[in-house]
Amino acid sequence: MLSRSVILALGTVAFASVLPSTIEKRYCGTVLTPTSLHSLQQQFPDEVFPNTIGTTNQFYVSQNYDAEAGILVNIVNQLAYFEGPPPTAYGCQLGISFPPDYPFDPYNGNQLNVYTVPTPLPPTGPTYNNIVPNEFLFGTITIVPGQTAVINSHVCPTAGEGGLAYVFSYPEWSIETSNIGWIQGGDPTEGVTGIYLSYNC
Predict the structure, then answer these.
(1) Residue 3: what pLDDT?
(2) How confident is the model at residue 26 (pLDDT cuts 50, 70, 90)?
(3) pLDDT of residue 17
(4) Which secondary-structure segment (H or E) carries 6?
(5) Rounded to whole angstroms, how far apart are CA atoms 145 and 183?
(6) pTM across the whole model
(7) CB-based contact 86:92 (threshold 8 Å)
(8) Cβ pair 94, 193 in contact under 8 A
């Protein structure tokens, strides 16, 4: 099994790059970028990993396949949280966008499942164990450079919920070592690199 220091080092190497240029595209309604991105790691199921927004801005999903045991190990899922939209908002859409020449690093397995997560999030912070996504699949996305796509739409949050949260992971049928990552960035008024939430659509 990988040590915590190795995993953190891997993330540092994978995402040590300059923020890419944004995409000049218009989006439906008002656009929000993630308030927080937290790593959910199977190997450290009760550890709260730091919010990367405002530091590395890294988004990273991975899994290792143990061929001898025939199981997936060292699963790393990505939690994304968007604070807001306001209680009066309608037509919330989760989307994703990348420049045509975006240099994903790493890029080995590009189809992800997306699940919604009940909010508000645990006050002690999100972990692999205490984040339980809703049972039904919210959407799937095959990630490629140059795309701008809506993953799915749903009801905007109530005042009590305060925001919307999602977990990104590899599909259950994917039984191979895979990883994908990018640097979340961009300007919501012009273009976003990575995931975004729009409302009033």
Answers:
(1) 53
(2) low
(3) 37
(4) helix 4-14
(5) 13
(6) 0.85
(7) no
(8) no
